[in-house]
Write a structure and sequence with these properties.
Helix 2 crosses helix 9, helix 6 packs antiparallel against helix 8 and helix 6 runs parallel beside helix 9. The strands form two sheets. This protein has a two-stranded antiparallel ribbon with strand order 1-2. The chain has a two-stranded antiparallel sheet with strand order 3-4. The chain has two domains: about 230 residues, no CATH class; about 60 residues, no CATH class. A hairpin with a 2-residue loop joins strand 1 and strand 2. It is mainly alpha-helical.
Length: about 300
């Protein structure tokens, strides 16, 4: 059973568009994005119907619950309705995209439906080429141990045996590897790094928008040696936030997928259901934590040093 268990820390390509490799995480993210856009269009259509029929639909109730909850969360941090309305689109996008990707990775078939491809193993091959026309003394000069001169037929047979051995080792080094068609986008480090970079770029944008040149003084300050050192630490901290963001989300989601894969391989029936419930909770918590930290970073970026 363990021989068929394949876990890859990186996303695997499932097809190519020209020179662009489409991995299973990109494919899943595209599907999730399409579903989110479809949901938004359906909610807009539901609002149009509600205006004429005076009846509130299920989609509208769900959308209002989500928007109102996130609005109250942002407002509890900023205490400023103007900031809340400005931060709202990004925070909603983070929460919905991460939550849907986390939960999509738990659906039946995700990680279990795929194809097998032959992966070439890495091998080190040392080729020894000898020119039979060279004198024996010249060949022996490159060796610490004297070489025995073989007959031409023996050299030919030895060469054939070495070639057959290399072909056999090359065939053995190739083994079929299972590649799933779908993989949660947040279980790919590339996706989480991209989300973290977008978050930090947005934080710098809000900081410059509210504080103008004073925001740059947060990182470059020559008023005193202490403030200069503090500015360097702040600059390093901005870059470290990207890694912290990315690895926190990636580590939790990827670890959950590995846990479910291993448990399902060992005990394929009742036991994995408890872990599925745990991963549903973890997926929601990770989306909430990412969104909450983004709100806090945006709020801190818009405040001066005296507020911090």
């Amino acid at each position: 059973m363990s021989a068929n268990l394949h876990i890859s820390i990186s996303a695997e390509p499932v097809f190519h568009l020209g020179n662009l490799a489409i991995t299973n995480s990109i494919l899943t993210s595209l599907i999730v994005s399409t579903l989110i856009i479809s949901f938004a269009v359906a909610v807009n259509w539901s609002l149009t119907i509600a205006k004429s029929t005076k009846k509130i639909g299920t989609l509208q109730n769900l959308a209002e619950f989500l928007v109102e909850g996130l609005y109250n969360l942002i407002q509890s941090v900023t205490n400023d309705h103007t900031k809340t309305r400005r931060f709202m689109p990004l925070i909603v996008a983070y929460f919905v995209f991460i939550l849907c990707n986390n939960w999509f990775g738990l659906l039946p078939g995700v990680g279990t439906i795929g194809f097998k491809e032959v992966a070439e193993g890495e091998e080190q091959v040392v080729l020894l080429q000898q020119d039979l026309s060279l004198p024996v003394a010249q060949v022996q000069a490159s060796e610490t141990k004297p070489l025995e001169v073989a007959e031409p037929n023996q050299v030919s047979n030895t060469t054939t045996e070495i070639a057959e051995t290399n072909v056999d080792s090359e065939a053995k080094s190739k083994s079929p590897v299972f590649v799933p068609y779908f993989r949660a986008g947040t279980a790919d480090l590339n996706t989480t790094i991209a989300l973290a970079m977008i978050t930090q770029f947005a934080a710098q944008f809000w900081g410059l928008s509210y504080l103008k040149f004073d925001y740059i003084k947060k990182f470059i300050n020559f008023s005193s040696p202490i403030m200069f050192f503090v500015g360097i630490l702040e600059l390093v901290g901005e870059f470290s936030k990207v890694m912290s963001y990315a690895f926190r989300l990636f580590g939790n989601i990827f670890a959950g997928e590995v846990l479910l894969t291993v448990i399902s391989a060992l005990v394929p029936l009742v036991v994995p259901m408890a872990f599925y419930g745990l991963e549903i909770f973890v997926g929601a918590i990770q989306a909430f934590v990412f969104s909450l930290l983004s709100i806090i970073f945006y709020q801190v970026a818009t405040l001066g040093h005296h507020y911090e």
